[in-house]
Structures are given as structure tokens and as C-alpha cells.
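Model it.
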Amino acid sequence: MNTFWLTLGFTAQALFSARFVVQWIASEKAKESIIPALFWYLSMAGGGLLLIYAIHIKDPVFIIGQAFGFLIYGRNIYFVIRKKNRKVEQPIVP
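Modeled.
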């Protein structure tokens, strides 16, 4: 693979992924997901399928980019589930 295109691909993936890093940091500070839960479930499903495809075509830029996203998707799904469970556990106060 041409070094120029590989460098361009990794740079593009880093810029694309940066938006998730910014969101991830905001969610960590808030200690909850600040984006609708469906966004994260769709991200996990779509990212999983894209990762399978990237592995199939043996594209290292695509593989690393999609694999990194799973960390962020998983962490935010954890926040969504934790928040939902916290609401269920709160006692009803008259």
C-alpha cells in the first residue's frame, strides 16, 4: 500500500474519531451519556459490521478506527444502563 495513502487514511480516521473522543470526555465529566441511547446501540451494531468488513478487506486504517470506537460505544452504553438502573432503584418518596 502506498505510504501517502496509508498516512492520509490514518490521519482521516484520527480526525473522524476525535469527535467521539470529545463526546466521550464530556460523558465522563457528566458521569452519564449525553447522547440518546439509540445512537450508541446503532454505533455498536454498525461499527461491528464495519469492523468485520474491514478485517475481510484487510484494511489496517479501517480496522484500527472501528476497533477503537468499540471502547467509546461500550462505555457510553454502560452509562445508559447505569442511569436506567439508578432510576429503577430510587425509592418512591411521598
